[in-house]
Design a protein that fits this description.
single chain, mainly alpha, 16 helices, 76% helix, globular
Length: 380
């Protein structure tokens, strides 16, 4: 099993903070900058952690189902219930069989809540596995296929431009960023990887070097098109800016994460799925309408960049993380840890072992009693 790299986990947690903050914030230059790289970043980080063993596809698939699909389904159902409760509280008119209809949509994986992105990661992993196999583990050939996957994704947008089941339209494009991350942490580039990440001050320099062009590319694209990269809505205009910007931004963010890397942030990243699931359908509306409604009324009409709106969104983000990190541990130590992609806690295993021992002893006594009775019958 590959040893976890601390700063990659830190990058995942910090990226999740940006997701929550920008979803609660207003459209503007900051959101434009973050959106220019934050979803490609998750693909990139995923690629950095990929290590292909000579495992059969069946084993690879089962592993990904356990880590991606099972948690996504159960968390998705909880999101649907949360959304139903919030709509009921606010007297929002809902379609008949709201929960059942949305569970069906969840199974189709068509942009359901923020969790939609997990199925795109799942599909991109399957695609990169196939690319790795047909490329005979050749990194250069893999790169050619990854570029082809990117072009297929763009072709789908240009011709169909609809969200495809299981978010395959995003997965085809995501494969390219997975490959970039995979290549960066590949043994062939081992010296470059360690040179750029072993020392914090060197990572800081590389982070700055990548962040400056990423910032200007995002700025030029936003000023030219008044748009930013938005994988959810299939917006990649202008690709000559958005794709290089996403690559540079992903590298910059990863290097900066190495600079501030610490065990505390790395541990907090374990709750990312829970944070991704509940911030939009549950906590943001709850916070705005029931926890601090007066404060929201005061800041809701303020422009992006106003210090009062920033403070409000920061408090929302931090309070959500504090509360739902706790929710993650409730799931982890509950009888249903698979909801958050965790194994059963040791005390459950000890209890089951104790229970099994008790049952075995009872069975043994029953069998002994039966044997004694049969012996008595024979004697008679």
């Amino acid at each position: 099993m590959m040893k976890r790299i601390e700063f990659i986990d830190v990058a995942k947690f910090l990226a999740m903070i940006l997701v929550i903050f920008t979803h609660a914030y207003k459209e503007g230059r900051f959101v434009n900058l973050v959106f220019s790289f934050h979803l490609p970043l998750f693909f990139f980080l995923n690629g950095m952690t990929l290590r292909f063993k000579d495992e059969p596809f069946q084993d690879f698939l089962i592993k990904k189902i356990k880590s991606y699909l099972i948690p996504t389904f159960f968390l998705g159902v909880l999101c649907i219930v949360s959304s139903y409760c919030m709509n009921s509280l606010n007297n929002v008119q809902m379609v008949n069989h709201y929960i059942l209809r949305n569970i069906i949509n969840l199974l189709k994986e068509e942009r359901m809540y923020a969790l939609w992105f997990v199925s795109a990661l799942f599909c991109s992993d399957l695609l990169i596995y196939a690319i790795h196999k047909i490329s005979f583990k050749n990194v250069i050939v893999m790169g050619v296929f990854a570029i082809c996957s990117l072009l297929i994704g763009f072709k789908l947008i240009d011709t169909v431009n609809v969200a495809i089941m299981w978010n395959l339209d995003v997965a085809f494009i995501g494969v390219f960023f997975v490959y970039i991350g995979y290549l960066f942490h590949h043994p062939l580039l081992d010296k470059i990887f360690h040179f750029t990440t072993d020392k914090r001050w060197i990572s800081l320099l590389f982070g700055i070097a990548f962040a400056i062009p990423a910032f200007y590319l995002a700025k030029i694209n936003y000023e030219t098109t008044n748009k930013h990269l938005e994988m959810f809505a299939r917006i990649y205009t202008e690709r000559i800016y958005t794709i290089p910007c996403a690559i540079l931004g992903s590298f910059a963010f990863t290097f900066f994460s190495r600079v501030i890397s610490n065990k505390f942030f790395a541990i907090l990243s374990k709750a990312n799925l829970v944070l991704l699931a509940f911030h939009q359908p549950l906590y943001i509306p709850l916070y705005r309408e029931y926890i601090f409604p007066k404060w929201w009324n005061q800041v809701s009409n303020l422009p992006a960049g106003d210090s009062k709106l920033i403070l409000y969104t920061l408090v929302l983000t931090i309070s959500f993380i504090v509360i739902f990190e706790g929710v993650y541990y409730l799931f982890k130590y509950s009888p249903f840890p698979f909801i958050v992609n965790e194994k059963y806690a040791s005390f459950y295993l000890r209890f089951l072992s104790f229970l099994k021992g008790k049952i075995d002893r009872i069975k043994k006594r029953i069998y002994q009693k039966k044997d004694e009775e049969s012996e008595e019958i024979k004697v008679e």
